[in-house]
Amino acid sequence: IGAQEVEDTYGGYLFAYFEGGGDANLMEQLRFAVSEDAVNWYALNGNKPIIGSDSISESGGIRDPHILRGEDGDYYIVATDMHTYDPKQGWGANPGIVMLKSKDLVNWTHSKVVLAKDFPQNFGDAFWVWAPQTIYDHKAKKYMIYFTLQRADRKTLITYYAYANRDFTAFEGEPKQLFSAKYGSIDNDIIYDNDTYHLFYKGNTKDENGKEYINGIQQATSKSLKGPWKEDFKYLDAYAGTNTHVEGSSVFRLNSEAVWILMYDLYSSGRYEFQTSSDLIHWTKEPHSFRKNFFPRHGSVISVTQEELDRVQQKWGYVLTHEFESDGNPIIRDKHNR
What we know:
Elements: H1 3-8, E1 10-19, H2 24-27, E2 31-35, E3 40-43, E4 62-69, E5 75-81, E6 96-102, E7 108-114, H3 115-118, H4 120-123, E8 126-137, E9 142-151, E10 158-163, E11 176-179, E12 186-193, E13 196-206, E14 212-222, E15 230-231, E16 247-253, E17 260-266, E18 271-277, E19 288-289, E20 291-292, E21 296-305, H5 306-316, E22 324-325, E23 333-334
Parallel strand pairs: 3-20
Antiparallel strand pairs: 1-2, 1-21, 2-3, 4-5, 5-6, 6-7, 8-9, 9-10, 10-11, 12-13, 13-14, 14-15, 16-17, 17-18, 18-19, 22-23
């Protein structure tokens, strides 16, 4: 089945996230939620992890999960390998990246990239390896994983990339620099539209003494996936310059109309909100709230078909509204006669 045929059958959305409330030992673990309209969200599996982090990560925790529908029909997740709620680790150095792959959204294989161990010559001083994401490079015909790296000197936040190997279990080679924002960037998210790559990220502005005085969601653009990237230094989110701070932005397109959603994590306020755009450049000024029965932290969204919605709910429990009908027979069927 081709990519366009899949798009024509989209019936909802899947949200991959980690939790911001409840038992601290369970928060930094992978969770899924579903929606039919991208506004009203329902956690799967009772908002419990769909995979235990202790089984897939080096640290025992994962953060910032990014999910991608692959060009080959498979699904890919990468996440920060980090367990900040472990008192022995906290916000210290994290080992690297967790990589997961699935053919059905239900059964996942996994592997890990430990940057300092895998590439000791040039990355032995890796300190933070944050918020990885995957994008398909149509020119190279390979999956590119990009992430923010801070080295042990704690001076810079630079975006690096590496291609995944064929079975998505490791990097094909040593990472290379992709984007170096003037004041550093985290939580990078690349979207391709209308012959342009749009790189959204959490950025900041510093004074002449190097002190940050404003931060928020910014954007850089390029005609090539590998840059060079042009920063515009504008802030897109509604909260830049206020005492309410946001991070973990993620952009996705609605199924039914040419509208883009820029969602972000109001990490200090316990909220998740979004703004909209028709061109990825001009964004509404007023933020909107999601309706949700969970407390998500930095996640990502993909469009899914009705069959995929049914499949994940068969696995982790039905949470979406269903219309039932009875034909007089004691067996009640849903509207699709199943």
